[in-house]
TrEMBL record:
Domain spans labelled Cupin type-2: 38-102
Pfam family, one: Cupin_2
Gene3D superfamilies listed in its UniProt record: Jelly Rolls
Protein name (record): Cupin domain-containing protein
Length: 121
């Protein structure tokens, strides 16, 4: 078993799309999917941009304010997630700071209560 400390990964700052106080650290890459650890400083913003693929943002600590194509802002806390579809414009802000994990690419994301992986039979 290997244990990853997402906060200790090397992060690089991102300023594209008007982002500020935003950094990412990649920790998993596949042919059609990648996983990154995300940090937003207090008052940080991931500027509005289109999702390259289906994108899942899972809040690990702190709080996020997220919006999709419709522009309606939703507040997310630890253990909550947002999903954006390919090409959907979206943005994320965090008044108090946040750490999260983003999975982006060719994803099947189940509805609440839906079993995505049937497991061993």
């Amino acid at each position: 078993m290997k244990v990853l400390d997402l906060a200790a990964l090397p992060h690089r700052p991102i300023e594209a799309h008007g982002s500020r106080g935003f950094s990412v650290g990649a920790f998993g890459l596949g042919a059609d999917t990648h996983l990154v650890a995300v940090a937003l400083q207090p008052g940080g913003t991931i500027g509005r941009h289109p999702a390259v693929g289906r994108q899942l943002l899972v809040v690990l600590s702190g709080e996020a304010e997220v919006a999709g194509a419709e522009g309606v802002v939703r507040r997310l806390g630890p253990g909550e997630a947002a999903v954006w579809e390919p090409g959907e414009p979206h943005e994320t802000r965090s008044p108090g700071g946040m750490t999260a994990m983003i999975v982006e690419g060719d994803l099947d994301i189940g509805a609440p209560g839906e079993q995505v992986d049937p497991g061993d039979v």
